[in-house]
Amino acid sequence: MKSWLFAYFLLVSIISARAQDHEESNYDETKVPKYTLPKPLKTQAGKKISNAGEWEDLRKPEILRLFEDNVYGQLPNDYDSIKFTTVREDRKSMDGKAHLKEVLIQVFRINKSVNINLILFTPTNAIKPVPAFLLINNRPKENTDPSRLQKSEFWPAEEVINGGYAIAAIHVSDMAPDDPKLFMNGVLQLYPEQLAADNGMRTIGAWAWGASRVMDYFQKEILVDETKVAIVGHSRGGKASLWAAAQDERLALCISNCSGSTGAKLARRQFGERIMRINTSFPHWFTPNYKKFNDNEDLLPVDQHMLIALAAPRPVYATSATEDLWADPRGTFLALKNAEKVYKLYGSKLGLGNTPPALNTAVIESPLAYHNRIGDHNMTLFDWKNFIRFADYHFGEKR
Ligand code: GTR
Q1: How far is the centre of ligand 1, averaged over its atoms, from the C-alpha of 273 (Å)?
Q2: pTM of the predicted model over 0.85
Q3: Which ligand 1 atom sits closest to the C-alpha of 260?
C-alpha cells in the first residue's frame, strides 16, 4: 500500500476509535452510580487527623506514597549533578519589553544525562526578581516560540510579561517522549530501575520531574522570585502540574487546565473518561500498578481530591470547558470541593461555594479556585487572564 494511503487509513481508524471511546462513555448525570470517596482526614490505621501538624506528619506522607504506588509511580529526586548553560540571550525581546534567556538544563546520573531546554522571558522593567509562570508544554513547540514570530493563546507570553510576570516553558518531549514505544528515552534513562518496578515512574512523573529541575535552576536565577512560581499545565500537562505541585513544595501555586481523568476530576465519578480508557489509550502515562483499577475505581485507596489536597495550603486553580465533557467539569469542581477540608486545617479562607459558579465566571479569591469556560478543550487567553488575576491575588502582587 502507498504510504500516504496507509497514513490516511491510520488517521481514519484513530479518529473513529476515539469517537467510539467518547460514544461509549457516560455523559448522563442520572447514570452516574453512587460512590464514596476515601477520607483525606483519616489515616489508613483509622486515626482521625484534626490539625495541620498531624496532616503533615502522618497523613500527607501516607497519601503521597499511595499516589506513587498506585497512580503516578515514584518520583526520584537524586541525581549526580546538574548544569545550567544559557545558550541564547536577547535583552531586547518583545520590542524591548522582555529579556529572553534560553537555558540548557543538563542532569547527570550514573553516566547518563538528560537535556531540558528552558525558555524564559522576564520583564525588562522589573526592579526586583519577579514571580513566574512555568508551563509544562504538551503541545507543539511553536506554541512557545522564543523568537515570537509565532504567537499562541496557549502560551500568551506578551500578555504575561505585560502583567509583570516572567513566563517560562519546557517541552514534555525533553523529559519523556509522549509515545508508548519511545517514552523511556529521556528521564527514565537516568532511572532504569523505575522501568522495572510496578510502581515505577512513567511519562506524567517524568514531566513533573522536569518542573522540579527548573525549580533547581530558578533558585539560582536572580531575575526570578523562586518563592512565587506558578506551575501550569493543560490536559495531560495539567495532570503533571498537579503531581509536580503535590511533590515539590517549592512550587508556590498550581494551575491545572482541563486536566480531566487522573488530573483534577474525581476518578470514582463515572462520567467522561475513566481509568480503563486512559490506561488503554495511554499505557505509558501512569505506573503499571494503575491498571489494577481499570473498571474498578472503588478499589483505589485515593481519589483526585486528595491529590489536590497534597498542595495545601498553596493555591490550586483547576479549570474546565463547557464542551469538554470528556474531562468532566462537574467532577473537577467536586474534587476541589472535597479538598477543602484539608485547607481548612490551615485556616484558609475558602470561597468556592456549594455549586459550580456561573459559566465564564472565575472564583479566584480562594486558594481552591475554579472556572468553567464556554468553549472547547483548550487553554486560551480567557484562561490566562484569570491565571494572572489569581496569581496577583495570592502572591499579593497588586499592580
Ligand atoms: C486525551 C486524554 C485526556 C487528555 C487529553 C490531552 O486524549 O484522553 O486524558 O489528557 O488527551 O492531553 O489533550
Answers
A1: 9
A2: yes
A3: 9
